[in-house]
């Protein structure tokens, strides 16, 4: 459970808010004396305001709630305004919380996304935003904590469509509307710029904002986005299905041996051995090469078998139908296989398949056959693509609004394959005409060797929000995203993440820990 919570915490946008451009700390002069009082709030379309409260908070140390926890210190005094909304007839109660620094507001506004089934921030993100001079908003969408799915089905065992719609799309939009209204009421002026920040579920929410509510934010930082939700959530059960059907459950040590061997074999594809696989899609390492290899696990010597290699090959390859048709992408080569292939199914996709797809809380996932898996996958697509798929490639309205969308994702993302995000980006290019037209407002950066939501979480760093702010406010589109990455040996190396579709290539000279020793090239030249 500790591993699960650590990963889920990576989806909280706390760290993204820590890396800000210097200009973001400039205080703004407001036309209204600061008063922390409940403002009059106009209900967003389709909602009713149930209550509005305002509480003066002294700041100091702010602790996170729920399973994610987290702590932020030295938070300045702020006003917390809470607006509770309901959609008449839905019997829902969505809390929208806006935190406003008492002094030093930088004139900017942030919307904060959630993680797993948590729709919004659990306090650390809000606290960090306030600490950096932002007014910030988040919403709980009327649902629960990160692993709380008690709201999925109603008393009749049917999907609670109102709460799913809240979680999928409308509550983030309503939070943006309410939050800006609160900012205007308290400070006497609207924010000069508005940004949305999120990773994983929060990343998906950012894409949904761009797709359906293109005027909500000037800039959207949506990392490791859980787009293609209806597909990848089912697909991430594939490792469990494979192991159960093949009756072979390799240990984490054995999985690690396969991963290490693949990284070693494919490390030099970018021209140098540096502990990073810069383009996993080109790695064709055959797991059968490890058959007969001895692995020591917890003091016991194990021998990797042909059955182990077959399981790994299927997990890397990804889900297919019984006839061999590919359904989705597998765990990327270089990613932690055991994250989805542990003793128990990862709880996020397990809940999705049991509750929303099968609508059967008692479903025994271990009994799912290959044919049944295909049925569940296609059922999820049919029922939920338009609800929570978040894969509409038509971003023309967001482009016309002047918005900018910036995304990075780890190539070693163990939960959401980066190839799904790449596929979405390519669909946007086809929809809007060319890569150049898309680059004008939407850029994707892939981070070698980086896990799910890993950057700024101890698995490397990058000033992603600084890059987005410079793009939005000064027109400086990021050609690269300077970052510190952690290679397979645990060493920190500097890299300039390349704007997709370019990948990093060694120049043939220079320190491999130095970004200047690499250049970004198109894969055809790589």
Query: Residue share in helices?
Result: 25-40%
What is the CA-atom radius of gyration, in angstroms?
23 Å
User: What does the oligomeric state look like here?
Assistant: single chain
Number of helices: 14
Structural class: alpha/beta
- Widest β-sheet, arrangement of strands: 1-4-5-7-6-8-9-12-13
Please state the overall shape, judged from the principal axes of the Cα atoms. globular
> Tally of extended strands?
18
The share of residues in extended strands comes to 15-25%
> End-to-end distance, in Å?
41 Å
The residue-averaged pLDDT reads: 93
Contiguous uncertain segments of 5+ residues: 11-25
Q: Major β-sheet, in short?
A: 9 strands, mixed
Describe the 3D structure.
This protein is of the alpha/beta class and 526 residues long. 31% of the residues lie in helices and 20% in strands. The chain has helices spanning 2-9, 124-131, 161-187, 201-212, 229-235, 238-246, 252-266, 306-317, 347-357, 370-389, 396-400, 418-432, 435-439, 464-474; strands spanning 48-57, 60-63, 71-75, 78-86, 94-101, 108-112, 135-139, 193-199, 219-223, 294-297, 300-303, 404-410, 442-447, 461-462, 480-486, 492-498, 503-506, 518-521. It has a 9-stranded mixed β-sheet, with helices on both faces. The longest helix is centred in the N-terminal third of the chain and has 27 residues, at 161-187. The chain is globular, with a radius of gyration of 23 Å. The two termini are 41 Å apart. Residues 11-25 have low confidence and may be disordered.
